[in-house]
Amino acid sequence: MIPGARLSMLFLVITQLPTSRLIAQDQPLDEAYKDSLVRSIERLVSDNYVLRNLRDSIASELHLRNSNGAYDDSHDFEDLAARLTDDLQAISGDRHFLIVYDPEAAAELRVEEGEDAEGAEEAERIANRKLVRERRANFWFRRVEILDGNIGYLDLRRFSGSSAAYATAHAAVEFLAHSDAIIIDLRHNVGGSASMFVLLASYFFGDSPVHLGDIYNGISDETREIWTRPDLPLHTLPDIDLYVLTSGETFSAAEEFAYDFKHLDRAIIVGESTGGGAHMATKMELNDDYYMYLPFAGAVNPITGSNWEGIGVLPDVEVPSDDALDAAHIMIIERKLTDESDQERKNELETLLAELTAGIE
Length: 361
Known about the structure:
Layout: E1 10-11, H1 31-48, H2 55-67, H3 77-92, E2 98-101, H4 103-113, H5 117-136, E3 141-147, E4 151-156, H6 166-176, E5 181-185, E6 192-193, H7 194-202, E7 211-217, E8 222-227, E9 241-246, H8 253-263, E10 268-271, E11 279-285, E12 290-300, E13 317-318, H9 324-339, H10 343-360
Parallel strand pairs: 4-5, 5-9, 9-10, 10-13
Antiparallel strand pairs: 1-6, 2-12, 3-4, 7-8, 7-12, 11-12
């Protein structure tokens, strides 16, 4: 394993992260300390960044900014982290870069990488604490309901990487299984794990595996294919109409879901263009006080031969994100009306459509 790295296939969103339980810091932010920190960043970028042709130029530009005194007047550890993050993102155009000041989390990284018995026990305790936090968040399944007209709705805020989340995912989709259509709301989804992405995607295709995409690993210089797993869902829903809601906040794994389903013609994307992060990041320790999220891998779609990095996923139906749910709901009812032959049901849908459209006028 590369020192300081946890190399899981993780789509990560760069949003504001909590500076939880920071340890008091006696080390002064002097020139030598800053130089050492910047050198650690440069080395990890040069060795591991997903876009090999940009590694040296990113590291060199960061080195130049430091040499020119860009951080000389930074005397606060969190301020320095923010400045380094801003510069890395500006230099690379990659929002997955993040420098985090959190001595406790940096120490946890060292423990997780340790191979001795004591380190393994502490790593297990850390993993258990993370699982407790995920359970309290219901593994990011925020809302599941049946909307008027028998339309299923799922509000998912992240893609959990815990296998313990699978039962929650199964329960959510099974609750929606008898809907006439399903809306998956990713407007506030900031990314997460490829494993949950594969599980949910597998529900909406048939019994034969479907090639969703590829992941290029810039560290190993290898490409891994990502396919649906028909063995994972309790049963599949290959024919149900599917709509995915997006916004500028939608990022990383959530974008992968929207992008792949769009180009496989499996879902209609409604809302705004997404954030534009097609890379995956891993945590890498920098020193006793800091760690970084470093993009080490990237998605490649087999249909387009490209991805959404820096561009975002363009919706099929562009509306303000705040209006996306209403827009999708109306589109579904209009489509059902066109296909409906039962007059009683048609009357119900016409009444509902009038109510929905009146509500947004």
